Amino acid sequence: MMMISRRSVLLTFATLSVASVPAQAGSPRADLVKMFDTDNDGTLDLAEVKKAASDLFTKLDRDHDGTLDKRELAGRLSAKELAAADPDHDGTLTENEYLAVVEQRFNAANPDKDGTLDAKELNSRAGRALLRLLK
Ligand SMILES: [Ca+2]
Ligand SMILES: [Ca+2]
Ligand SMILES: [Ca+2]
Known about the structure:
By secondary structure, this protein is mainly alpha-helical. Helix content is 59%, strand content 6%. The protein has eight helices and four strands. The protein has a two-stranded antiparallel sheet with strand order 1-4. Strands 2-3 form a two-stranded antiparallel ribbon. It is globular. Bound molecules: calcium ion (3 copies). One calcium ion (CA) binds next to strand 2. Residues 61, 63, 65, 67-69, 72 line the site of one calcium ion.
């Protein structure tokens, strides 16, 4: 009985902490932009996207050999996408090869070609494919 009530107190506390975060800009879409928007202009440009992708690359490269293999990519690219992104066909991606895929996906998610992705573009199908390479 004690255990249960203590746990419910903790849960209540957790709920309150979440609720007390100011609901700035509101939507989860805007939050996705904010996560990588280092200059805080409300949109993501290619430099911001590449910075996020490069950070993730470093994090994913668990054996620190400077490349990502299939296991390290952990499903972020399909076998077909990996083959297409890997011009020397050694089964791994260097950071430049990875960033080339990121740039392709950035362009695919940016149909108005204004150089930036807004929350709506980021939440499109192409935008979500890009996000998989950023986080
Ligand atoms: Ca920005
Ligand atoms: Ca590696
Ligand atoms: Ca755009």
